[in-house]
Amino acid sequence: MAVRDEIRQQRQKLKGQGFRAHWDYFWEYYKIHTIVAVVAIILVVTLIRDIANRKPYALYSLFVNNQGMETQLLLQDGFAEYAGIDTSSENVLVDTSSNYIGSSIDQTTVATSEKIMALIAASELDVFVSDLGTAYHYASQETFMDLRDVFTKEELDAMSDRLFYVDQAYADYLASEEYTDYITTGKFDESNKYAVMADKYNNTFQYDEISPSEMDDPVPVGIKLDNSKALAEAQAYPGSTPVAAIVINTERIDRSKQFIEYLMQ
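The chain above was modelled as a monomer; its predicted structure follows.
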């Protein structure tokens, strides 16, 4: 019997049997279709609502290896008030959901690496905050802006004891064919101090903090925030030295600078 004939026959049987019989018939024959249709409608409505409600970012900051339970809300609200941002028209996002452990290349670390790359590629990320070791790793990958392009010489001089540097010569080595050969073969020039540094990191996942005076080409790329009242209140990085840096391709430089100034209080 054809499906349409079967349906016609079933409908004839339902005549005069009331709502329950009709409902049972409908659910038996159209259950899957109904569920699919409802889910599709929910997704479409949610998408439309999200698009309609999406506000531009006033700031997107990523806090890697944050330990505070309330860091996100405290800093979002605190900075919005500090900067006079109308959060009904602009978003302030302090993203504390990512962790990076260089010595343990697990799913979490890989996911964080991919997330950071995606945010930078999309020019969404403004300020990067992390513990000292993670900051060294990303600074050596030329992820952060030279703060001399953001702050005046007078401003940098005033916070000289809080500046975080990377040696551009080390970053250049990591981008060289020599380093690529090392990754492939494991062999390196032991007379090249940058090759020795890279090999040590790849074996220990630890950076030795070096004075700018010992660097060939020191570049200030971050601010150490040991004395930040906002981070202390949020218990964001207890027992460690947090560093804030501005991502190299941010489109909100002024707001990023303002956020770092807020954290420096």
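The chain has two domains: 3-52, 56-263.
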